[in-house]
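Inverse folding, one chain.
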């Protein structure tokens, strides 16, 4: 969860939002209201990214429930984006999702519908312009009206910080053990982290005041993931931009004094295969032998 806070008239409003429902539910500052609030929960299946999403379950007797964001200081150019899906398209008439806005309080009676979401049974991205609320403090509700329908899934809710645009035009250039990531941006500095694609993020960020980041001591022929964001000081930070890069393979293998090369394959998943080896067998699960390239 990424929230940037702005103090106005004794209240705290967020100026950006990045929520994937990976931690406590509801997330800090969010509210659940309605006729049967237990229908909203974190769900570890059918997520779009990460390991969890928000799910609204169906109810035999029907229900109307709201998942409500913290208060947001709306500005021109601000957009809400999110991913959502339906558990089964055959229940589309019985499970409905609406995006609603309140310009006063988070009481359900104060919300006005701004868009009915046309759901499918695969995740779709939805973008809603909030510019008309410029200068107002608003709440946004994911309002589900269920009539013994099916589950609705919501993930990766995002409102960018319009005062701190994210880096763009990212270009990576890597050889066997080093390389550079360059990008376009006008922020005071940039936060950056990289890990092996199979590793968890450890939030050990690198800070750069230039529009390029140079890395060294990398592993040859290896897939890495990275995340990059703008840091605009008092104007907060942008959303994280996620990406990957792969280092080049060595031209030749290094053989030890026993004239051997060892690869125990312990760092790979069952379906993976090392980037710098060629599989001769056509059986993906049981390669018979390999050769260097």
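Residues assigned per position:
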């Amino acid at each position: 969860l990424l929230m940037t806070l702005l103090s106005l008239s004794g209240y705290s409003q967020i100026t950006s939002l990045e929520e994937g429902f990976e931690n406590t539910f509801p997330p800090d500052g969010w509210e659940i209201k309605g006729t049967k609030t237990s229908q909203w929960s974190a769900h570890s299946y059918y997520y779009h990214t990460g390991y969890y999403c928000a799910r609204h379950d169906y109810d035999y007797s029907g229900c109307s429930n709201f998942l409500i964001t913290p208060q947001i200081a709306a500005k021109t150019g601000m957009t809400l984006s999110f991913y959502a899906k339906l558990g089964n398209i055959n229940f589309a008439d019985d499970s409905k999702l609406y995006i609603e806005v309140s310009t006063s309080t988070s009481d359900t009676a104060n919300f006005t519908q701004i868009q009915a979401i046309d759901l499918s049974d695969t995740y779709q991205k939805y973008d809603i312009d909030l510019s008309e609320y410029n200068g107002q403090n608003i709440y946004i509700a994911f309002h589900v009206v269920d009539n013994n329908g099916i589950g609705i899934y919501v993930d990766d809710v995002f409102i960018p910080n319009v005062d701190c645009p994210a880096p763009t035009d990212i270009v990576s250039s890597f050889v066997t053990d080093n390389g550079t990531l360059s990008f376009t941006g006008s922020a005071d500095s940039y936060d950056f982290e990289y890990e092996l694609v199979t590793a968890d993020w450890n939030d050990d960020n690198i800070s750069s005041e230039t529009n390029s980041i140079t890395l060294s001591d990398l592993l040859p022929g290896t897939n890495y993931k990275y995340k990059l964001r703008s840091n605009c000081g008092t104007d907060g930070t942008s959303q994280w931009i996620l990406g990957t890069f792969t280092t080049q393979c060595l031209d030749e293998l290094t053989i030890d004094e026993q004239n051997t090369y060892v690869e125990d394959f312990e760092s790979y998943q069952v379906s993976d295969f090392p980037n710098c080896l060629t599989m001769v067998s056509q059986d993906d699960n049981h390669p018979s032998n390999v050769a260097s390239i």
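The radius of gyration is 24 Å. The chain has no helices and 22 strands.
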